[in-house]
Predict the 3D structure of the following.
Amino acid sequence: MPPPRTRGTALRHRLAELRGPDVPAKALDARALAALAANPGCARRAILDGAGVNKAALASALGSPSAFGQSQFALTRGNAFEAKVKADGGAELLRLVHEKLDRSAEPPVEARVPDLTATGPRGRTARTELELREATAHPGAWTLLDHPMLALDVAGSPAFLEPDAVVVHPDGSWTVVEIKSFPLLDGSADPAKVGAAARQAAVYVLALEELAARLGVEPEGGTAPLGAEGDARADGTGVPVPRVRHRVLLVCPRDFSNLPAASAVDIRKQRAVTARQLARLTRIEDIADALPEGTCFSPELPAEALTAAVESVPATYAPECLSACELAFHCRTRSRREGAVTSLGRPVRAELGGLTTVEDVLAAARGEAGDPDDPAVAALRRAAALRAEALEAACR
């Protein structure tokens, strides 16, 4: 008799069924998590990402392909630049960390670069945890973790994340390093791209904080007190307690060259927003339990069956989705067909209160529907009256 299925095993089995038979899971990376946190009310994206569905293939099967994502040229250029930054045991990278974030520490003449090779994401996560524990327990030297694997609980399901690098300082504190291929021109970069990198780094910081909280609980029981941000303090047993720095290092090409330049980015705001939004996500198992029996998102299904499966999960579309989600074109078409005001943007939606469709808004503006005491309805009627006056004056 097979062993009883645990809650976690049952959820993984259910998500595999939603993905489709023999369809490999697509890893949920930090970029996707940051986009998901920006739209926590979208149950559709939550369940598709949680189940590891390839949304690009799904969008193509639905007839709404998206060009969302990095070009192959950008990926190749980024990989080449990252290799240059990490050459010689990460000497240049550690020099930049020392210069921008920790000048008071000893210069990184030699650093420990452990091998993080292991089988599968869970094995790599365990290996990363082991090496971080080792580096923190023996402070005094620099340690560079190249492409560590971190785990973060997202709506009751683990997401495995792979930052470019994590550096352990001589004081035992941890820093996230983000390496990007967009340039730093005269010491500054495109604010939109820096903001996206900061949101991505905030996800890694949250995952490291979860790990640090586990490492901070000693065998004797109780959690060691945490010191100021950037410190690695010891509790009564003398075991160092890791701290995750909230200033990350962003490494980019300098001007139009391939030489690395770096900037320290404070991501406390992005971390707080991301943590709050991820906490708002409905648990993935609750969304899965509410789906009709036999629901499957395999791109191999007939178009009608696949469309019905996708439409069985409510979505919260906004124009911002066009730059963050492969299903944005499909959801936009449905949103416009239904006349949903969300297609006009979140600020407009927030101003309209209980008016959820364009038809409701126009009816309220014409005085055909809506509560006159509702501030949104009153504002619409006032705007309609001013428009009528302006048109009348223009026709005279």
Notes: The beta strands are 111-112, 142-146, 150-154, 157-161, 165-168, 174-179, 233-234, 240-241, 247-253, 260-266. Residues 1-5, 217-239 have pLDDT under 50 and may be disordered. The chain has 15 helices and ten strands.
